[in-house]
Amino acid sequence: MSPDLVILCAAGMLVTAYLMVGQKALFVAIRLYGLQSILLGVVAVAMALTDRRPHLLESAALTIGLKGLFIPWFLMRTIDRIGIHREIEPLVNTPSSLLICLGLTVAGYRVSTGMAQGGEGAAHHVIGVSLSMLLMGLFLMVTRRKAVTQILALLTIENAVFLVALGATSGMPLVVELGISFDVIVAVLVLGILVRRIVDRFESMDVSQLSKLKG
Amino acid sequence: MAGETRWPLGMTQSLGFGLLQAALLLAVAPLLRGVIKKMKAAFQARQGPPLLQGYYDLGKLLRKEPVRSETASWVFVAGPRVYFATAVAVTMLIPVLFAGAPLEEAGGILVLVGLLALGRFALAIASLDTGSPFGGMGASREMTVAALAEPALMLGLFSVALWGGSTSLGELARATSVRGPSGHPSELLAAAALFIVLLAEAGRVPVDNPATHLELTMIHEAMVLEYSGPDLALVEWASALKELVFMTLLVNLFLPLGLAASADPAAVAVSGALYVGKILVLAVAVTLVESTNAKLRFFRVPELMAVSLGLGFLALAIRFL
What we know:
heterodimer; A: mainly alpha
């Protein structure tokens, strides 16, 4: 039962990452990120219960609380304040992005079979999904112009890395976990402020504006 | 049916069973639409039409005299009939209450997709027949969406077929109800792809709005604008049936819980109750999507369908990785 649940949630995370690439409304993307983090938390809980690794429960609680609830709430507030709700012109249009992400997923899955524990079973799927998500996050980051989407891409990569850690190792010590979570929060807070500064200054969230000289 | 049913059934048995199943789904289909309408109304704090409104509408339309344009040829008359006939034929290819389909000897996934395409083609060509601009517009839009939904549907179904080891839907239902879900990520990806296909094929909100006749946005309604009386009743009934068929496929292929293996009354009762429950859950999901999303601009619909196609492709591809 539990390996099934882990695989199901990992697949759910892949679906949310894919949907994130496929649509443009920022608030939907934020909700998808929240859902993805909650699924990640469920994966951690399931692994904690099956493999008797109780310290994973703490990371699961951290994941659900911070990444599933707090960060989405904070980002929602940020886009509400600045009043920009859509990713207007990504550098690559949506159908091509989706096609590229298909390729990335296949590549991620293929690469995962080369890892020590990636050969078979639940670990294969977990590592495959997380490598695919990692690649998709990187792709989102380089092709989207809006600062909020780039933050979400960064957070997706962070989720992917956490998922790899769950699948390939027996999880990290709590201290490391706390440090990472704290880093993520600080990063999001700082980036949130940065986004508002960019919007104040340029009246747009388009990061390509930043490369223009303004006197 | 006899107690010791073995699949595949004999000729007469499967025909009788097929007719029974078709009649059952035909009887239930308008109710499903009523239930979704009612839930949607509840979301908007309205009372909504009565649950049986679909039946009243069909009854009213069937009693009326059809009004047809003078320029209409036999194609116009044949369209709704072919559409209705294909929808009824499809009901006999899918597992509903039993872990098997009545006419599974006649064909599986490919026949299902082909029959649906035939019905759609008949209706589209019929709507072009009178030369009304709305008909042409509706037909072109419907075909645009269908051209993208169909490959997604096939990819999603094939990824299930790959695991079940057969393209016959009855066989698949038996395989999955015996072995349980495959515990492979591809399952969820295929289910997500087919859910988006369901929204598109049933003309639900992100793709089409079944509640309005606004000329800028309508797809299905534009296509059948010229029809009246019994012709319209056939089209509406077949559309409701198609929606129920898609939902049945989705729940029975991905959640084949409690499908009856024989005609034992207790097993059939359990399977019936579970079936109603599963369809209701799916109807709630559809209502949620309809109530929380705005209809997409038509030129954004291909993006949604591309998501569905991509998920379907992934579902198939990662079975091999």
